[in-house]
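Task card 7
Instruction: Convert sequence to structure tokens.
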Amino acid sequence: MTDDMLADIFKHQLDLQVQRFRDPSQMARDDALEFILWNVVACTDELHEALNEVGWKPWASARHINRNEYVGELIDAMHFIVNLCLVVGVTPEEFHARYLSKNEKNHRRQLEGYTGEKDAQGREID
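Output:
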């Protein structure tokens, strides 16, 4: 394992893709688009599976968190998130930098009263 845990995750996922399937960064455009679709659907499915491990339903009395299973589903989702990064060449360094930038923006939004409004093109208004 490397000192950079995010880089280690990206490396292991790329190794898995290259050894068992194919290198996402080397896909032709149409194949990449299909790969993106599959991975978004798979990630969404894993997140739904994570919901099955917690008592989130307001109409039900169960208020449980099956932590081990829940975390396992989040790990499954992470595989697909990393695939989505790999297919467009996002590096762990870029991901980290953009995460920090967005986190800072989210803090600012909360302090300034974020409305969630969008412009005519559907982009968020800050």
